[in-house]
Specification:
By secondary structure, this protein is of the alpha+beta class. It is built from five helices and five strands; from the N terminus they run E-H-E-E-E-E-H-H-H-H. It folds into two domains: 95 residues, S-adenosyl-L-methionine-dependent methyltransferases, CATH 2.20.130.10; 55 residues, no CATH class.
Length: 186
């Protein structure tokens, strides 16, 4: 179990972020780190995980059942239009190396991005079907469609690939494109 610290935990967020930032800047404190770099299209993202040395100092630690680790993920994103940086802070009941914490957060964001896609592109949150089986069935079809389009777009040989949203729209207006996505060769 891990949780990103946000504004709804303002005091804990401030304490953890200040502690980790101080540990990073104090060269006498050993902070475990792990790094990854990922390139997608015209975007390069570098991630560094900083694992806090310990949480013995945290007075509110007992309020968080099983809390063992705090860590930060610093992201640098490079695109054609510029560079941006952000740092997110997390707490977890797991005591894992920084490398594993970095991987867990990345996998979590892959799931979050799929849910964002389902909501934005398919308007899943606006679905007014009341029947539980109907909701489950539509959810399966949405995820299947998402997976098929993602596989199709990632398998294209062209240098500049269309977005998933564009591919889905094209499938709505072109029967040939739809058949290509589901693997029917004409």
């Amino acid at each position: 179990m891990h949780e990103e610290l946000k504004a709804n935990q303002e005091c804990l967020h401030e304490e953890i972020s200040a502690y980790i930032d101080d540990c990073i800047s104090d060269k006498t404190i050993e902070v475990e780190t792990a790094q990854s770099t990922e390139k997608n299209k015209d975007r390069l993202e570098q991630r560094i995980c900083y694992k806090a040395p310990n949480l013995d100092w945290l007075e509110s630690k007992s309020e968080w059942s099983g809390l063992k680790t705090a860590f930060a993920i610093h992201r640098k994103i490079f695109t054609k239009t510029g560079q941006s940086e952000e740092t997110s802070y997390y707490i977890t009941s797991l005591d894992l190396p920084a490398k594993n914490l970095l991987e867990i957060v990345r996998e979590h964001w892959k799931i979050e991005s799929m849910h964002w896609f389902l909501d934005v592109v398919f308007s899943e949150d606006d679905c007014r079907i009341l029947n539980a089986n109907g909701q489950k069935t539509l959810n399966i079809f949405r995820k299947f469609s998402f997976a098929m389009h993602k596989k199709h777009v990632s398998g294209l040989k062209q240098k500049t690939k269309p977005s998933l949203k564009k591919s889905m729209f094209k499938a709505l207006i072109s029967e040939n494109h739809l058949l290509e996505i589901i693997g029917v060769r004409l």
